[in-house]
């Protein structure tokens, strides 16, 4: 069977699979990783696939349609996110009219709101809930006639004969992750001509993004991927399989900058990290890599990670307020451990990209200022400041509704008119625009410190590999440092509001 997997056109450089989908101020463009994992698993089941990433390929809707027409698919599966969902459903409708084949959606928003999504677009046939790899494969088997009842497929919403919508809840999460084809092979076979288009502002580019595990044992209220796709049980691939894929990547992607482990928390199991590092060293593999981490990695492990090629960790510090950290279930009682971790990372020679979030329950103008000073004290190599993005399917979204902090359910308003982050959350004495404005100011204050500028200039002078990232990052950052963000486009389409 022939299946098109599509990351639909929307804003230029729009990243659906970011944890906060948007156009970024750092010119970052994410790999369509989850879409590619699902595509690879379906392809391995004796199917022919087409993988289109319209934002990376610079395809508008007409060009996307032309590319699909060349392939003549029998099923089209589209990736979605909350800020783009209304656009994505419209694209699905257009493709349904033109090609007359079944359409399905997957991704964070599809998983969080499967029934609403199908009610918003009556021509949509299916909605994949949670991990898409096996559900997409079973859907294809149903369409091939090998599974009689579509209602028997776990994790799938579908149309009923009477015109209604029903669904089967997602089944158990995938335990044997080694059975899923390497996503890097999917990239190589289907996206390689666009390999260098993918750019991550804090990383050495070009880069490849993979997973060594899925799920996160922590329960931060705002984090959308564990709450809609991966779950809260951390399941790992075998370290041997991970390192074998790293070898494949080094042999098949020219001019590789680094590999990024997009696990929700790569360091969730320290022994897993140790074994991967030791295998890299045993095999004398020369590779640079980075990861998502939590601010609880001990110095001895940090040193081992550095020795095995770790360059940077992306860490969510979020807030300086103990009350706010408790409210968002961060599992951190104070900031002392995070400050110690940042010091240890510097001792080990590993860079840190720090994430700071404002607008959570308990935030006030005073806690925002404390968080900005906290960011300066931590002094990570790079930092991002962003307003809380409360997505359907998350505890943060439920909290916002319960506390009357959600300004609107119009999904168009999760982005500003240019596709950049804004927020639909307000707090006492803090409007949604106040939160966006604070992030703009925090960014200026953090990056325009003379000490920071000298630090980055020194790194660019002494480290050739970091030089391009620093100059490109500075060039894109300058465009946004003194620009006001947050203005919403005038054209909106309201989602249903009759839910509690």
Describe this structure in words.
- With 500 residues, this protein is an alpha/beta fold.
- It has two domains: 2-168, Rossmann fold (3-Layer(aba) Sandwich); 200-481, Aldolase class I (TIM Barrel, Alpha-Beta Barrel), CATH 3.20.20.
- It is built from 19 helices and 15 strands.
- It has helices spanning 33-43, 54-57, 61-71, 85-99, 108-112, 114-120, 132-143, 183-190, 224-230, 239-252, 270-282, 299-307, 322-327, 336-348, 365-378, 395-402, 432-447, 450-462, 464-481; strands spanning 2-7, 48-53, 75-80, 103-107, 126-128, 156-159, 165-168, 207-210, 213-214, 235-236, 258-261, 289-293, 310-318, 351-358, 382-387.
- Helix 1 packs across helix 8, helix 12 (299-307) runs parallel beside helix 14 and helix 18 packs antiparallel against helix 19.
- The longest helix is centred in the last third of the chain and has 18 residues, at 464-481.
- The model is unreliable at 491-500 (pLDDT under 50).
Q: Layout of helices and strands, plus pairs?
A:
Blueprint: E1 2-7, H1 33-43, E2 48-53, H2 54-57, H3 61-71, E3 75-80, H4 85-99, E4 103-107, H5 108-112, H6 114-120, E5 126-128, H7 132-143, E6 156-159, E7 165-168, H8 183-190, E8 207-210, E9 213-214, H9 224-230, E10 235-236, H10 239-252, E11 258-261, H11 270-282, E12 289-293, H12 299-307, E13 310-318, H13 322-327, H14 336-348, E14 351-358, H15 365-378, E15 382-387, H16 395-402, H17 432-447, H18 450-462, H19 464-481
Parallel strand pairs: 1-2, 1-3, 3-4, 4-5, 8-11, 11-12, 12-13, 13-14, 14-15
Antiparallel strand pairs: 5-6, 6-7, 9-10
Helix pairs in contact: 1-7, 1-8, 10-11, 11-12, 12-14, 15-17, 18-19
């Amino acid at each position: 069977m022939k299946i098109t997997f599509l990351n639909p056109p929307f804003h230029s450089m729009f990243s659906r699979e970011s944890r906060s989908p948007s156009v970024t101020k750092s010119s970052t463009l994410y790999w369509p990783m989850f879409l590619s994992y699902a595509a690879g698993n379906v392809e391995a089941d004796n199917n022919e696939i087409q993988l289109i990433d319209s934002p990376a390929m610079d395809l508008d809707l007409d060009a996307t349609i032309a590319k699909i027409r060349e392939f003549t698919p029998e099923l089209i599966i589209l990736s979605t996110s909350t800020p783009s969902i209304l656009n994505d459903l419209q694209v699905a409708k257009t493709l349904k009219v033109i090609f007359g084949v079944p359409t399905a959606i997957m991704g964070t928003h599809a998983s969080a709101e499967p029934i609403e999504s199908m009610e918003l677009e009556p021509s949509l046939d299916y909605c994949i809930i949670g991990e898409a790899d096996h559900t997409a494969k079973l859907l294809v088997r149903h369409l091939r006639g090998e599974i009689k009842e579509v209602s028997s497929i776990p994790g799938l919403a579908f149309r009923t004969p009477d015109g209604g919508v029903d669904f089967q809840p997602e089944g158990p999460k995938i335990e044997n992750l080694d059975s899923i084809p390497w996503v890097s092979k999917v990239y190589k076979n289907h996206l390689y001509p666009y390999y260098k288009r993918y750019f991550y502002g804090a990383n050495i580019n070009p880069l490849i993004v993979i997973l060594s595990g899925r799920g996160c044992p922590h329960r931060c209220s705002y984090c959308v991927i564990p709450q809609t796709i991966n779950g809260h049980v951390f399941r790992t691939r075998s370290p041997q399989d991970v390192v074998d894929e790293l070898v494949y990547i080094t042999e098949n992607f020219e001019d590789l900058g680094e590999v990024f482990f997009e696990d929700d928390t790569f360091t969730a199991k320290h022994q897993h990290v140790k074994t991967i590092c030791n295998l890299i060293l045993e095999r004398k593999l020369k590779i640079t890599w980075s990861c998502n981490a939590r601010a609880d990695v001990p110095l001895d492990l940090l040193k081992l990670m550095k020795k095995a090629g770790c360059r940077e960790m992306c860490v969510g510090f979020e807030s300086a307020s103990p009350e706010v950290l408790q409210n968002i279930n961060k599992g951190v009682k104070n900031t002392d451990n995070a400050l110690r971790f940042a010091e240890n990372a510097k001792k080990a020679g590993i860079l840190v990209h720090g994430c700071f979030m404002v607008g959570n329950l308990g935030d006030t103008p005073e806690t925002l200022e404390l968080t900005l000073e906290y960011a300066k004290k931590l002094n990570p190599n790079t930092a991002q400041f962003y307003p809380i993005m409360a997505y359907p399917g998350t505890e943060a979204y439920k909290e916002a509704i319960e506390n009357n902090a959600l300004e609107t359910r119009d999904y168009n308003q999760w982005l500003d008119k240019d596709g950049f982050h804004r927020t639909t959350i307000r707090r006492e004495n803090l409007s949604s625009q106040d939160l966006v404005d604070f992030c703009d100011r925090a960014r200026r204050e953090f990056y325009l410190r003379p000490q920071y500028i000298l630090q980055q200039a020194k790194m660019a002078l002494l480290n050739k590999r970091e030089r391009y990232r620093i100059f490109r990052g500075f060039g894109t950052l300058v465009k946004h440092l003194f620009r006001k963000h947050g203005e919403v486009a005038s054209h909106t389409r309201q989602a249903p509001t009759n839910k509690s």
